[in-house]
């Protein structure tokens, strides 16, 4: 029996991304040491933790859902000494993304449409964005990957680069 889906105040579902999908998204971003990575709607922070193990990146996550913030704090504590990760209990629409090198998103297409103008206006040229299941309306993906999980669940991953 599965638990009911939790929704944010913006009506977005809170769902955990499978670890293997997290890793594939991070591989697509091709993170480099010294980069700044943001996760808008970081949930339990597993993506940021995994990223910090792949490269020496500074990670910032935005999250407003109390249950997700609690899970993120527990995951960070369990991992220990992760000074390179900061979680902000703030609305990501207020995030300063002007210096971001890479961005992780898992939002519905509706919310991606709402945030796309912010991405267009504020991200620096060359910034990379990865999302899955939902594409960013009016953006052309640089790469689309069809990924099948170990449980045979299909996922579509999208990589974008700000032009």
UniProtKB/TrEMBL annotation:
GO terms for molecular function: methyltransferase activity. GO terms for cellular component: ribosome. Keywords: Methyltransferase, Ribonucleoprotein, Ribosomal protein, S-adenosyl-L-methionine, Transferase. SUPFAM superfamilies: S-adenosyl-L-methionine-dependent methyltransferases. One of its GO terms (biological process) is methylation. Pfam families: PrmA. It comes from the Bacteria. This is 50S ribosomal protein L11 methyltransferase.
């Amino acid at each position: 029996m599965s638990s009911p889906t939790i929704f944010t105040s913006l009506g977005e579902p809170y769902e955990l991304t499978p670890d293997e999908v997290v890793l594939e998204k991070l591989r697509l971003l091709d993170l480099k040491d010294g980069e700044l990575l943001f996760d808008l709607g970081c949930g339990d922070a597993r993506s940021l933790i995994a990223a910090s193990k792949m490269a020496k990146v500074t990670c910032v996550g935005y999250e407003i859902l109390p249950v997700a913030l609690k899970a993120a704090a527990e995951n960070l504590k369990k991992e220990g000494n992760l000074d390179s990760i900061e979680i902000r209990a703030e609305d990501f629409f207020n995030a300063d993304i002007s210096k971001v090198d890479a961005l992780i998103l898992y939002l519905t297409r509706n919310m991606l449409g709402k945030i796309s103008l912010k991405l267009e206006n504020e991200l620096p040229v060359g910034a990379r964005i990865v999302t899955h299941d939902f594409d960013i309306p009016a953006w052309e993906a640089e790469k689309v990957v069809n990924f099948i999980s170990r449980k045979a669940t299909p996922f579509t991953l999208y990589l974008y680069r700000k032009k």
